């Protein structure tokens, strides 16, 4: 529903902020990782994960798109709710979590408060393949510079759920055969091969 909020930071605390966006103050829960990145800013942009429950509608904000993506992966695991996901991202960096999941390091995940051995194993079991498919650089922020046609097509295919290495290979072969294709043409051609 919401992708990001960009506004003035009215209140900053290690667990939440109040962000004034167009005269409306949004109470947004954040991780310590995000807090460390925005604590010196007056204005900021937070990527939002909007969580709806029977008794609450809660906004979780992240300084980077990669951290939000990892948070959404974590809360997709049964037994890991938004508060536990935020606790995980506050305890160790998103890069450390991703590396621990990909490498099957149960003991690192288990050290996080509120995560027992069974939960740690479940997180690794359910997310290991997803994170391996996305590649190790998914937590690196996307460059703001204009992407080339193949890069834009690759981004779209990864967002559609295709593995980055596989999509990259197909796109490279398509771009080599016809360098004048538009993004749409390249994506359509790649979809036929994937």
TrEMBL record:
GO terms for molecular function: ATP binding; four-way junction DNA binding; four-way junction helicase activity. Residues 151-194 are annotated as: Domain III. InterPro entries: DNA_helicase_Holl-junc_RuvA_I, Hlx-hairpin-Hlx_DNA-bd_motif, NA-bd_OB-fold, RuvA, RuvA_2-like, RuvA_C, RuvA_C_sf. This is Holliday junction branch migration complex subunit RuvA. One of its GO terms (cellular component) is Holliday junction resolvase complex. Its main location: cytoplasm. It is found in: Cytoplasm. Has three domains with a flexible linker between the domains II and III and assumes an 'L' shape. Domain III is highly mobile and contacts RuvB. Keywords: Cytoplasm, DNA damage, DNA recombination, DNA repair, DNA-binding. Pfam families: HHH_5, RuvA_C, RuvA_N. The RuvA-RuvB-RuvC complex processes Holliday junction (HJ) DNA during genetic recombination and DNA repair, while the RuvA-RuvB complex plays an important role in the rescue of blocked DNA replication forks via replication fork reversal (RFR). RuvA specifically binds to HJ cruciform DNA, conferring on it an open structure. The RuvB hexamer acts as an ATP-dependent pump, pulling dsDNA into and through the RuvAB complex. HJ branch migration allows RuvC to scan DNA until it finds its consensus sequence, where it cleaves and resolves the cruciform DNA. Residues 72-91, 107-126 form the Helix-hairpin-helix DNA-binding motif class domain. Homotetramer. Forms an RuvA(8)-RuvB(12)-Holliday junction (HJ) complex. HJ DNA is sandwiched between 2 RuvA tetramers; dsDNA enters through RuvA and exits via RuvB. An RuvB hexamer assembles on each DNA strand where it exits the tetramer. Each RuvB hexamer is contacted by two RuvA subunits (via domain III) on 2 adjacent RuvB subunits; this complex drives branch migration. In the full resolvosome a probable DNA-RuvA(4)-RuvB(12)-RuvC(2) complex forms which resolves the HJ. Belongs to the RuvA family. One of its GO terms (biological process) is DNA repair.
């Amino acid at each position: 529903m919401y992708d990001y909020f960009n506004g003035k930071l009215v209140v900053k605390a290690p667990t939440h902020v109040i962000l004034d966006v167009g005269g409306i103050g949004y109470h947004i829960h954040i991780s310590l990782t995000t807090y460390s990145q925005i604590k010196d800013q007056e204005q900021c942009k937070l990527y939002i994960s909007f969580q709806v429950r029977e008794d609450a509608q809660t906004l979780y904000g992240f300084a980077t798109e990669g951290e939000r993506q990892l948070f959404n992966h974590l809360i997709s695991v049964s037994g890991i709710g938004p508060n536990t996901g935020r606790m995980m991202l506050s305890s160790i960096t998103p890069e450390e979590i991703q590396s621990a999941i990909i490498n099957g390091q149960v003991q690192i995940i288990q050290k996080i408060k509120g995560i027992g051995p069974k939960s740690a194993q479940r997180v690794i079991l359910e997310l290991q393949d997803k994170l391996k498919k996305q590649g190790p650089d998914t937590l690196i922020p996307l460059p703001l510079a204009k992407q080339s046609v193949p890069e834009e097509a690759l981004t779209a295919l990864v967002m559609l759920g295709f593995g980055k290495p596989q999509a990259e290979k197909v796109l490279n072969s398509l771009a080599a055969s016809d360098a004048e294709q538009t993004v749409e043409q390249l994506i359509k051609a790649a979809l036929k091969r994937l």
